[in-house]
Amino acid sequence: MVTGRQSSGRAEPSPPPPLSCDPGQKKPLSAIIKEVCDGWSLANHEYFALQHADSSNFYITEKNRNEIKNGTILRLTTSPAQNAQQLHERIQSSSMDAKLEALKDLASLSRDVTFAQEFINLDGISLLTQMVESGTERYQKLQKIMKPCFGDMLSFTLTAFVELMDHGIVSWDTFSVAFIKKIASFVNKSGMDISILQRSLAILESMVLNSHDLYQKVAQEITIGQLIPHLQGTDQEIQTYTIAVINALFLKAPDERRQEMANILAQKQLRSIILTNVIRAQRAINNEMAHQLYVLQVLTFNLLEDRMMTKMDPQDQAQRDIIFELRRIAFDAESEPNNSSGSMEKRKSMYTRDYKKLGFINHVNPAMDFTQTPPGMLALDNMLYFAKHHQDAYIRIVLENSSREDKHECPFGRSSIELTKMLCEILKVGELPSETCNDFHPMFFTHDRSFEEFFCICIQLLNKTWKEMRATSEDFNKVMQVVKEQVMRALTTKPSSLDQFKCKLQNLSYTEILKIRQSERMNQEDFQSRPILELKEKIQPEILELIKQQRLNRLVEGTCFRKLNCRRRQDKFWYCRLSPNHKVLHYGDLEESPQGEVPHDSLQDKLPVADIKAVVTGKDCPHMKEKGALKQNKEVLELAFSILYDSNCQLNFIAPDKHEYCIWTDGLNALLGKDMMSELTRNDLDTLLSMEIKLRLLDLENIQIPDAPPPIPKEPSNYDFVYDCN
Predict the structure, then answer these.
(1) CB within 8 Å of 321: residues ≥ 6 apart
(2) Which of 139, 438, 505, 573 is deepest in the core (most CB within 10 A)?
(3) Dihedral, CA atoms, 45, 47, 48, 51, nearest 10 degrees?
(4) 3-state secondary structure 122-180
(5) CA-to-CA distance for 36 and 38, rounded, in angstroms?
(6) Each residue's pLDDT tens digit, 96-144
(7) Is 723 a residue whose pLDDT tops 80?
(8) What number of other Cβ atoms are within 10 A of residue 391's Cβ?
């Protein structure tokens, strides 16, 4: 550790010898600071502190001193308490220039939790909110003559506020209605400075997500109509924060309010505006925007959950009328019997026959088919939508199947119910959005009734696949499996429209699925004869060693991990990588997602592999046991792992995706001499074993390998052919 005294923003060379930075030393931090101050002949050592000399400027405390590594450059500077006191006074200066400079320093220093705690202890948050609430009128007069200064001043004030609140020290419930109104006014006002607008949107999002009371107050101040113009601009970051606020309002709205809000979004043509100005804009969609679009997609589909979990009431006439309407549209051309004697019996008989043609399981009372949840009433809603909006296709499917033999007909009713259930599983209807997923589908933003249209395409696919498979009623589950594979494969290509999705499905006929399956089966062929099994057993250790080396090489390359807090932010990243000699993990914070390789010397923190006690995953991770909505998310749990070291110390991770999760857990287990147990390892082992065996058996092509070794031949009658070489 190199020390220096701060003077005019520069660290002067220090006359005393450099101090040892051994993290295991027991000397109190105050004693070390006193030693440095004595070397500089500085009195009142309690007014000083040590600080990282890098761009982070974080203070050193007893709590984090063990994280300092040898070679880290520190500087002697004003203590956080003194600094907080000085800034608290400076931001109240009557000089605009002094106030602006103080707010700029405050915005920078507030990222450090040690400084933040001291500033908050001085009631600094209240001071900032008062400046925003009461200072604006005064600033408005100044704005006319010094607009840039006003914009910068307010921007730094809001930045400092956001950074201070991000530490989770102060509850969001403490803010007044006046403050909320003022922040909302910055969002509602046109022509507002970009940086002010961005931070105001971020504050509103955090308020809604962190406090039910504030959600209600924000919802009164902000309308969808006032947010829409921000989506029509060209700044993707503003668009991202705007959609984040809409998502937060959507997520926290009471159940009875969500459908009303969805109707407002439809009236304001939010979907169309997002499609035009975001998805189809002439620029790449960054990860944060992709995440917010995914969240909006999930929340929109979750509106279907109520219908999905609602059973049909066989006694409800309005619900029964929907089934009558399905029958009427399909068989309208057929004449109704007259109301003569016995006509009621004839009508019942005809209805039973028609319901059988419609493919219901219960021909007498088809309402009973919709008592299973999921999909409940959602299946019936989809069937009615298909019958009304794609009437020709509906009638064709029903009549086409009713003209086939009973065993070869594709039951429309049963198929629709099972298909609706399957589509809900694929789209995870009813599940909370993941904090890490970016998997949105552009095609769902191209239609106001995208789920219903999705169903209509898939029900026609199911009927087509049924015919291609020449299926019978016994093959129903097989057909559903093929249809699910067709839909999943088409979705992975991320079609940009529903028409493009339909074209993808056209190319994924049953014949094509069979070819794909056969190709995959050949690639993963598992030879079961004893000689092959013995060969597998022999070469498996070599393959496992190869996989282990690949995992360790990937750890040496390193991975960028996102820091998640109560409000997702783009600028929170950290990087971790293994040293080339496999002895140390290097890690540290990054300002942005890295482009290319991150050098070791830029990662300030180190963790010797020898200090690692264990690697835990999922619910066993310390950061998954903490209180918070994020920790309850199933997908986040599946990506979480932690390294435990020393006593009560841990390094917590949330992998960017399942692949990276498997790479890191495998690599860390390999470093600890444990088995690599991930699904990725099993798949890699199967693939590499299959390839290696095929390579070794190339010379034996078309030769049948026996299950048992050949018999040992009889001894020869004489040994005259043996020669003594001596």
Answers:
(1) none
(2) 505
(3) 150
(4) CCHHHHHHHHHHHHHHHHHHHHHHCHHHHHHHHHHHHHHHHHHHHCCCCCHHHCCHHHH
(5) 5
(6) 889 999 999 999 999 999 999 999 999 999 999 999 887 555 555 554 4
(7) no
(8) 12
Question: Which residues are CB-neighbours of 260 under 8 A, at least 6 positions away?
Answer: none
Handedness of CA 458, 462, 465, 467 (dihedral sign): negative
Token look-up 């009889």 returns 714
Rounded distance between C-alpha atoms, residue 687 and residue 691, angstroms: 6
Give Cα 222 to chain centroid, integer Å: 27
- Which has the closest alpha carbon to 681: 664, 693, 696? 664
CA distance 220 to 36: 56
Tokens standing for 550?
A: 């690949």
Q: How far is CA 553 from the centre of its chain?
A: 26
* C-beta separation of 261 from 253 below 8 A: yes
Q: In angstroms, what CA-CA distances link 196 with 175, 183, 188, 460, 626?
A: 19, 9, 12, 51, 32
Q: Say yes or no to pLDDT of 13 above 50.
A: no
pLDDT (0 to 100) of residue 264: 87
Could you tell me the sign of the dihedral formed by the alpha carbons of 6, 11, 15, 19, in that order? positive
What residue type is assigned to position 329 of the chain?
I
Structure tokens at 573: 């990243």
Question: What are the b/e assignments for 655-678, b being 16+ CB within 10 Å?
Answer: bbeeebbbbbbbbbbbbeeeebeb
Cis before 15? omega within 30: no
Q: Are 579 and 556 in contact (CB under 8 A)?
A: yes
Task: Name residue, tokens 């998954």.
Answer: 624
Cβ neighbours of residue 53 under 8 Å, at least 6 residues apart?
2, 4, 11, 73, 74, 75
Task: Please tell me whether the peptide bond between 374 and the residue prior to it is cis, using omega within 30 degrees of 0.
Answer: yes
pLDDT at residue 545 in the model: 94
Residues 6+ apart with CB under 8 A from 472: 407, 408
CA 397 to each of CA 367, 417, 456, 461: distance values in angstroms, whole numbers, following the listed order? 21, 15, 12, 11
- List all residues 6 or more positions away from 358 whose beta carbon is below 8 Å from its beta carbon: 326, 327, 330, 366, 398, 412, 413
Q: What length does the chain have?
A: 726
Q: Which two tokens stand for residue 713?
A: 């031949």
Chain centroid to Cα 351, Å, comes to 49
- Share above pLDDT 70 across residues of the chain, in percent, rounded to a whole number: 86
**CA 291/CA 143 separation, integer angstroms:** 37
Closest to 227 measured CA to CA, from 260, 273, 193: 273
Give 705: exposed, middle or buried? Use CB within 10 Å, 0-12, 13-18, 19+.
exposed
- Taking CA atoms, 678 is separated from 136, 192, 687, 692, in Å, by 57, 51, 14, 21
Residue 323: the pLDDT is: 93
Q: How many CB atoms lie within 10 A of CB 717?
A: 6
- Residue 50: beta bridge partners? 76
CA distance linking residue 351 with residue 363, whole number of Å? 8
Res 571 pLDDT > 90: no
- pLDDT band at residue 341 under the 50/70/90 scheme: very low
Question: For residue 20, is pLDDT > 50?
Answer: no
Burial 34-44 (b: 16+ CB within 10 A, else e): eebbebbeeee
Q: What pLDDT digit, counting tens, does each position of 519-540 carry?
A: 777 655 556 667 777 888 899 9
- The token pair at 362 is 């219960």
Alpha carbons 499 and 447: distance in angstroms, whole number = 11
